Amino acid sequence: MIIKCPYCGPRDVIEFTYQGDATRKRPDPASIDQDAWNSYVFDRTNPSGPHREFWLHTGGCRQHLLVTRDIASHTISSVMFARDTVSGDRS
């Protein structure tokens, strides 16, 4: 799989580290709602199709990236710097 880093250009996936699902919403840090925190930490979906993910370019510029990748085909439709988004909400 090739990821097109906006800074370094196309690179093999071996240079990147998966950082997690970019669609999850973190509870308010001041929240003491145990169910909300348990859900955030342990509940995972198993999506099929396009999915937004955070990746770190560990073998290159060390930038955090927001990647939209089709889970079934591994086709990447967009890559942008995560810093340009607000918690992965930018479309």
Kindly estimate the percentage of residues that lie in beta strands according to DSSP: 35-45%
Q: Which residues form runs of ≥5 with pLDDT under 50?
A: none
The coarse overall form would be globular
* Class from helix and strand fractions: mainly beta
Number of helices: 1
Our measurement of the CA-to-CA distance between the termini, rounded to an integer number of angstroms, reads 23 Å
Oligomer state equals: single chain
Question: Which strands sit side by side, in order, in the main sheet?
Answer: 3-4-5-6
* Overall helicity: under 10%
Number of strands: 6
Protein described:
By secondary structure, the protein is mostly beta strands. The protein is built from one helix and six strands. The strands form two sheets. Strands 3-4-5-6 form a four-stranded antiparallel β-sheet, with no helix packed on it. A two-stranded antiparallel ribbon has the order 1-2. Strand 5 (64-70) and strand 6 (76-81) form a beta hairpin. It starts with a strand and ends in a 10-residue tail after the last strand. 10% of the residues are buried. The mean pLDDT is 91.
How are the elements arranged and paired?
Blueprint: E1 2-5, E2 9-12, E3 17-21, H1 34-42, E4 50-56, E5 64-70, E6 76-81
Antiparallel strand pairs: 1-2, 3-4, 4-5, 5-6
Main features:
Sarcosine oxidase subunit delta, single chain, about 35% strand, 4-stranded antiparallel sheet, about 90 residues, two-stranded antiparallel ribbon, 1 helix, 6 strands
